[in-house]
Fold this sequence. Notes:
82 residues
Amino acid sequence: MSDNSEFEEMVSRLERDLNQRILEERAAMAFTAARLTGAVYTVAVTSGVPHDLAQEMATDYWTKEMQPTTDVITEGEVDVDE
């Protein structure tokens, strides 16, 4: 019984550590995306882009970073522009 509880404790510890690492990585990515979103807005405004458009550009960037899209290609589907 002792071996089983030790194993379960080790697995639990590993799971907790992995979840913490995943959370830390996601937080770091969110902080980076937030800084870059601010940079998109700031650079746009300082380059003469109107506030509303710069804000929309920053929002678009944030949305794409936080909700990435995926493309699905079904078998046999070919996109050729010839």
